[in-house]
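User: Here's a chain of 147 residues. Predict its fold as tokens.
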Amino acid sequence: MDLQPLLDAPLAVKLHVATVIPAIVLGAWVILFSRKGSRWHRGLGVAYLGLMTATALIALFIHRRAPHSPFFGLSPIHLYVPFVLFWVYRALATVRAGNIKGHIFAMRGLFVGALVINGLSNIFLLPGITHDVLFPVGHTLFAGLGK
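Assistant: Prediction complete.
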């Protein structure tokens, strides 16, 4: 592991990481371990949704994958922004309506879609800062492939 690529990254990337790491931990805790319906569950759930919203909005300021894109520097990975905002809304709307099954579906979908699937694709499939931090040069996961 080499933190230098993250330390050299733009402020938006650092803020994105500063919100996504606690969102992963908090989301896992709220979904897997907290007592559903308790005051702590609700409070931590609100914090998790706030972190996810902040993470998505900060991502709009990251233009490293396609800086010259005709879509304001946005790349296909930015499609996760409306995905996250939609599922945050659904999680809140369903719980307010008393639709607990819908709330569970929205929260799990948000966690799996935005954090697990997107996170794993950023680590293993898309070259960038996340991959460079976890797999420093010379120690890549796919080293030697294509030879």
